[in-house]
Amino acid sequence: MQFPIFQVPYLGNGMTIALDAVLHVIISHGLAIGAITLIVISEYFGFRKSSKDWENFAKNFLKFTIIVITGVGAVTGVGIWLITSALAPNGIGSMLRIFFWPWFIEWIVFTLEVIVLLIYYFTWDKWTGERKKQHIYLGVSYIIFSLSSAFLITGILGFMLTPDGWPWNKSFLSAFFNPSFLPQLLLRASMAFALGAVFSMAFLIITRRENVFRKDALRFFGKVSFISFSAAVIFTWWYFSVVPSAFKTHMAFSVLTPRFSQQPEIFYAMNAIGTFILFLFAMFALKGSVSFSRIFIVPVLLLCMGFVTEFERVREFIRGPYLMPGYMYANQVLLGESLFLEKDSMFKNAYWYNMITDKPDVINQGAYLFAQNCSACHTIGGINDIQDGVKGRSEDGIFVILRHTHEMVPFMPPFSGTEQERRIMARFLYQLANGKITIEAPSRFAPVKEGERK
Ligand code: HEC
Q1: CA distance 3 to 352
Q2: Burial category of 4 from C-beta neighbours within 10 Å (exposed 0-12, middle 13-18, buried 19 and up)
Q3: Is 47 left (phi over 0), alpha (psi -120 to 50) or beta?
Q4: For ligand 1, is residue 373 a contact (CB within 6 Å)?
């Protein structure tokens, strides 16, 4: 079955998924796993030490986190489904066939997670005294559910970079327990606790607290952040040690963009400095220095989010020409299908194109070929504008490079279509880049009908 092609104008498809997904990762890791775990621990401290300060801190912080988790966290999570299934329906469809059960179980786990979290919140003041212990256990059960979610999703994410033997053996187990599964799961857990500790410190410092308690709590969260930062460094190293080097070579490029890609030392220097700052901050927090932490908490919080964003960006980008390595290209054309389309024709096999177009011309055909082949990563007139890539080249020049997209830039898939279609696409791109034609609605998934074009 063929799905219509959507293109998000200006932002582009990849960036649209990324904006939603990164926000979701920060909340799901940092708050839903990290912060809530630390809240349950704080509640336990309050119980064990009979400390009203720990108890109140946990309760106030929970109120804030639960609003963000159930509001923004859940909505952006569903958003990932909505956006990816609109923009990459074939990719999601294929992965659903492999990972039906993990996703199905995840749906149940996620529902339980939200229910348990709400019960945990609403029983805080009721389950006191004798029942306080049960309340803490309820919190622990939530943590187990939230970690199970991470377990289920990470198998799928890992697959998208290191599918192991799946393209050949089609084995679910080798797909799910792929080489980057375990290091990525541990890395995500350490990211969660690192973010959670920094969020906790921010809440601790910003809200009014008793001084001795604040120092105490800061020391504790400082310790958690120190351990989590160290774990994150180790697991980042482990994770990238299992990623094939063909992918890893694009790491610096993915972050630096073409502008700075010739100076990869910027990439390494920035990461080293960022890591150093995080450890320095953790040391001061460990010492209980409230004034130092107050000054640096916001930059450090942003830095942590920056690292999470960077990790997701690198992971998604270096996957390069593939959506599912060894099986499907980023533009959702199957590896095997690409060879077929080169011989047989893209148009002949394009259901939506044939449904909608009554007048095949350069604009209609070119726009379709672009949408199908390139719009997963390029826009017309927005981020990673295709016009910039072909500007200054002749029509023949473009015709030639269209055959070599996958060699020019190794993270681009090849053009799928016959030689004649490549010619049409070259003409379209040439005319577009030189202002000879304009596209009225670059977001259209399909060509414009003659009567609609102004
Ligand atoms: C997987 C994502 C992806 C897909 C799909 C993709 N590209 Fe690219 N392309 C990129 C990236 C990233 C760059 C690098 C951006 C830069 O160098 O400015 C790029 C750069 C280019 C360049 C400039 C290269 C140079 O060295 O000057 C051209 C031309 C180009 N793409 C054409 C295409 C065409 C035509 C298609 C469709 C057949 C396509 N791309 C599909 C990601 C992609």
Answers
A1: 8
A2: middle
A3: alpha
A4: yes
Q: How many C-beta atoms lie closer than 10 Å to residue 370's C-beta?
A: 22
pLDDT above 50: residue 340: yes
Ligand 1 mean position to 372 CA, how many Å?
14
Locate tokens 């809200």: which residue?
207
Q: Whose CA is nearest to atom 5 of ligand 1?
A: 374
pLDDT at residue 442 in the model: 52
Distance between CA atoms of 198 and 192, rounded to whole angstroms? Answer: 10
Which residue of 161, 368, 370, 374 sits with most ligand 1 atoms within 8 Å of its CB, as the best mutation to test the pocket?
A: 374
Question: Long-range contacts made by residues 291-295, C-beta under 8 angstroms, separation at least 24?
Answer: 293/201, 293/205, 293/218, 294/205
Instruction: Give the position of tokens 């997670």.
Output: 113
Q: What is the mean pLDDT of residues 134-146?
A: 98
Any idea which residue has 């150093």 for tokens? 276
Tell me which amino acid residue 175 is. A
Question: Within 10 A of 359 (CB to CB), how many other CB atoms are there?
Answer: 13
* Integer Cα distance of 228 and 234 in angstroms: 10
Residue nearest to atom 31 of ligand 1 (CA): 389
For the segment 391-407, the average pLDDT, to the nearest whole number, is 95
Return d(Cα 101, Cα 108) in angstroms, integer. 11
